[in-house]
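Design review, sub-item: ligand-bound model
Attendees: FS, YL, KQ
YL presented the inputs for the 2-acetamido-2-deoxy-beta-D-glucopyranose complex:
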Amino acid sequence: MDNWISAFMMLWLIICVGSSPLSVVVHMSSKVGLPAVLPCSVASHLESDHTPHIQWQTISYSVFERMGQEQFQGEAYRNRADVPEELLVRGNCSLFLQDVRFSDAGIYESYLVYGESNIKNRIFIQSVHLAVIDHKAIKSVEIGADLILDLYTHQAEQVIFQNGNETDWTVLWEKDGVINKKGYLKKRDNKLIIRRVTASSAGTYTVLDSEGLALSTVKVKVTEPVLTKETETLQMQSASGKLYTNNVNFT
Ligand SMILES: *[C@@H]1O[C@H](CO)[C@@H](O)[C@H](O)[C@H]1NC(C)=O
Ligand SMILES: *[C@@H]1O[C@H](CO)[C@@H](O)[C@H](O)[C@H]1NC(C)=O
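KQ shared the predicted structure:
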């Protein structure tokens, strides 16, 4: 019985220590290719006459460090990480990440560094668990209209397609490649445009990164064009005038 009570007390102690404000882990998720802001605040530690010196790191790597205008970006975060100076002077040490990658997933920790040049100390500020997820969507496109696929990021290397009834995948587009199947693919602003879809354009479109991981999966349904009242009247007129017939269902 005593053992049970002491075990219970231990558990209670662990919970209390574990839940002190500084050690709360923030869990967040970001979609691959988009920006993410990892929250952090040093407002309560700020000394007005000091530019804060902040460090962000993962378990194994340096991510970003800022001391006034001086900054350092870790190798894997080159041109993608920042703690904006104008926010930092106000005590906001949030880490801004651009073009999030699957490999960015993990635990991030921020520290406030203080002390004179030769004796430095640091205070742990915030721990953030970042999950990175892929994009998923269902789209419906009319026959004859254009299908626009978002590539989201320069990480996109390939777009593959699986027709609704088949098990094989065909490569529709490749970065730096010459694959341009029927001349109906066009790329603009990180978007792939598939011109004038037909019934056989229905299926699954998957955007892959260089490791073959799916950045985005879009299931596309192809529908008959919806007729407006105007086109309906025109077609009725032409049907009566020139014996024009068509098999499009009026809706
Ligand atoms: C820091 O700035 C970002 C971007 O403006 C904002 O989203 C966030 O809420 C701010 N955090 C704090 C603690 O003020
Ligand atoms: C898929 O198969 C069904 C019948 O099994 C057929 O009606 C449909 O047209 C096929 N779709 C495509 C895109 O080939």
